[in-house]
Every structure is written in C-alpha cells, then in structure tokens.
Amino acid sequence: MTWRARLAAIRAIQLHADSANSANSPPSGNATGPIGAIGTIGMEANGCRPGEHDVAEAEAMAEHYAAAPSALPYLPGDPDPLRDGLLIASRMRPPAWSDEAPPPPRAFCSCCGRHAPEAGGRWWSPRRPRSDGTGTGPGWRCWTCHPPVHLAPRDLREVRT
Question: Is the full-model pTM beyond 0.70?
Fold first, then answer.
C-alpha cells in the first residue's frame, strides 16, 4: 500500500469516527489506525475515551483543569511524606542477601537499624567463598545481625554506609 493510500484510509477512518462519535451515539471501532499505529480516534479533548470517567469524575477533572494555578506551587524541597517514606524504604536492606553488588550509600539493616535509618550501617562480605561449600557464600551481611567472628579480617570486605 502506498503512502497516499494509507493517508486516504486514515482520513476516511477519522471522518467515520467523527460522525460516529457525536454526543448522542456511543463510539465505534478502536483507536488503532490502518497501519497499526495508536491514534486519537474516538478520544475526547481531555485525552480520555468517552465513557471512561463517570459524571462526577469528569466534572472534577474539568474543574481542576479550569482552575487558576496555585499561588504557592509545589517545590522539590517541600516536605512530602510519600516521597520521604519511599526514599527511606529504598535504603533498607535485609540482614543478609546474596547479591554481589555492595550496599548503596546510607543503606541500613531492616532488622537492627530500623529505629535509626539515618545512621546507615556496617556490612561485610567474604573476599572469596569457600570452595568446599561449607563456609560462607557470596553476598552481603549486616555486621550487627551476622558478625563475622568465624573469618579473619583479611578474609572479608567491609563497607560502612
């Protein structure tokens, strides 16, 4: 199919969709054009499909978009409990995990460090796992919850966060 034929097909579908999407008739067809691209056929001016929102929700959205901007807009430095909680949760690590990647800065243990997350933590990992399979495997451990008393200082890696 040539590009002229595709363009003509797209225009025909749009004209059909415009006449079918009048205020008194439900939408027909889908938003996929003849060449498989997602288009805006059957979409309202606010970017939603007809019937996607109930009346109260549509009125609230219209009121929101018509309102004047706030005199005090949100700034990135403003307190945000959700953002701050997610930031703290992103730093929390289990007492031991098998990943080779070292803990990130300010990471703290979910077991012993949960009361003072701003303090960070102390983590250790063996330099090389024992070849006989009886020793410590790869990964990182909390120094407080799993102290490395069975290893010499030269046999472990330590990270303070």
Answer: no
